[in-house]
Design a protein that fits this description.
By secondary structure, this protein is an alpha/beta fold. The protein has 10 helices and 15 strands. The protein has a domain at 131-272: Glutathione S-transferase Yfyf (Class Pi), Chain A, domain 2, CATH 1.20.1050. Helix 9 runs parallel beside helix 10. The chain binds adenosine-5'-triphosphate.
């Protein structure tokens, strides 16, 4: 299965952009602000979730048009072609709609056909930034493996907010209220932790099979913020009630989970590794995840501004790994030069001010 064509209508700075006759390597070349990342963002919306910028739907509607956006894609399968579409109307900017072969579906439905993995410059501070970013990262990767993961995360968060509201209430919360809210938190919290644990375990296995160089293989550990099974989480919430009341918030739970990342060869935490090593570790995780996510689906791998930031040896190794990954790869750059070794086998588009031209 592969993506044959994608079209963007009134999406960000693209009024009407179509990219057809794709290849395994697809290169988007253009100057800063041309609209390259916008195309990757449109591709990322062919999967469940909020896309690679986690932007509001209204921000993605082309500002000059006043209309909603439309993204369409054709997938090639063995038997019949498949048409995927996702769109949002300006009259109803809170709701993303999905059509699969013309029939109304949901973002979760897209996940049955396509798995999308990405690496963007916005992720550069992932290892040094707040733990919440790493939890969201785990959840995004887990969502590509199990479309139900997002629902558990959302329901756990909603119940957590409610418990924290009760704890912060000046009146002493009734035990029965806490019983009720914890009964909602526990199944979703336990499923959330299970999903994150499974993700990290499977990624760790894949990473262990990868060569230690040139991508600074990372070792990953999932550190749960509470016992990671339903009975244990339930007991922890109950036992912590007095402490949580004093703190006016919930001190233990999956909202305190951590993803620990260590440079495997040097045994140095990723947060203390060099900028280049951190980027190389992100590339390794992205490659491992792309291989996991695709299974049985079309895999799209979006690499924004990655190639130009690698030295020639690492760049050649990246292209080699990508070739073997089976995923369809979309890469951006301000110049064509870093892609010269794959230019012959790639589909190349020049992007300029929201328009594309096949090079
Ligand atoms: N809703 C919108 N409507 C119209 N234009 C938009 C909208 N959102 C963003 N843009 C424009 O899109 C452009 C940015 O596009 P994009 O981020 O894809 O650039 P890029 O080609 O990846 O550039 P860089 O190389 O700097 O990363 C900006 O000029 C921005 O003003």
């Amino acid at each position: 299965m592969a993506l044959d064509r994608i079209s963007l209508i009134d999406f960000r700075n693209h009024a009407a952009t179509e990219l057809g006759e794709t290849a395994q390597f697809n290169l988007l070349v253009g100057e800063n602000g041309a609209g390259k990342t916008n195309i990757l963002e449109a591709l990322s919306l062919l999967a469940p979730g909020r896309g690679l910028r986690r932007a509001a739907l209204s921000d993605m509607m082309r500002s000059d048009s006043g209309a909603g956006f439309r993204i369409g894609a054709d997938l090639r399968q063995d038997d019949a072609p498949l048409r995927l579409g996702t769109y949002a109307d300006s009259a109803n900017p809170g709701r993303r709609r999905v059509r699969i072969n013309g029939a109304e579906s949901s973002a979760t439905g897209l996940g049955e056909w396509l798995a999308v993995t990405w690496l963007t410059p916005a992720m550069d501070g992932l290892f040094t930034g707040p733990a919440g970013d790493r939890r969201r990262y785990m959840d995004r990767l887990a969502l590509a493996l199990d479309p139900a993961h997002a629902g558990h995360a959302a329901r756990y968060e909603a119940a957590l907010r409610e418990r924290n509201r009760l704890l912060a209430d000046r009146r002493e919360p009734e035990g029965a209220w806490l019983d009720a809210i914890e009964a909602q938190m526990v199944p979703h919290g336990a499923a959330l932790m299970r999903g994150r644990a499974r993700l990290v375990e499977t990624l760790a296995v894949r990473l262990a099979q990868m060569p230690a160089e040139p991508f600074a293989r990372p070792a990953l550990t999932y550190a749960p913020g509470a016992p990671d099974h339903a009975d244990g989480l339930s007991q922890a919430l109950f036992d912590n009630r007095a402490r949580d009341r004093a703190a006016q918030r919930t001190l233990a739970g999956p909202h305190r989970d951590e993803l620990e990342v260590v440079h495997a060869a040097k045994r140095v935490p990723a947060a203390q590794s060099s900028t280049g090593e951190q980027k190389a570790m992100l590339v390794a995780i992205t490659l491992a995840h792309a291989g996991l996510a695709a299974q049985g689906r079309a895999g799209l791998l979006l690499l924004d501004e990655v190639a130009a930031h690698l030295d020639p040896v690492r760049r050649a190794a990246l292209f080699e790994q990508l070739r073997g990954s089976g995923a369809q790869v979309w890469m951006t750059g301000t110049e064509a030069a870093p892609f010269s070794t794959i230019a012959d086998e790639a589909a190349v588009w020049r992007v300029g001010a929201g328009a594309v031209e096949r090079a």
